[in-house]
Fold this sequence. Notes:
alpha/beta; six-stranded mixed beta sheet; 6 helices; binds zinc ion
Amino acid sequence: MEPKSNIRLDESGYFVSKYARISQKEWTTISTENSGYDTADELLIALDESIETIIETLNRENWGSELKSQHGENFDTTIEIRFTYEVSNAIGGGSGINPNIHPLVKLNRSRFESNNAPCVHELTHIISPETESLSLSEGLACYMQDEKGNSFSFPNYGVSVHKNG
Ligand SMILES: [Zn+2]
């Protein structure tokens, strides 16, 4: 069996997993008490699992190699996680907002600290193909959060997307 955790701390102070990274400094600014994650390792392992679920569900095995073919073989597709006082958002990848920069997910700080951050929603924006349609992009991200993520996120706060027609 593969070891569950292969998180490493790189020379620039980032904890790095297979798909994501977060700086050690950023992590220390978070109050972990009610976040659901005691350590950055735990968060990165959970994010890797979510990312693999998104890739499988959307058949996006090539998302990383697509970015590399656009930006060059050395383009780092690792998704950086940061925290923000503003609403959670994603840039890079298929998010449509400046696809030339490295994938970055910013999670609202207080929502993260209460174990209520829309991680799957924001990761879906990065992994899904870029589309001109904002409604398609948001719809897909909301659907994925509802189906695969924690269940209390905007816009439906845990009510199944199938329920309201
Ligand atoms: Zn969104």
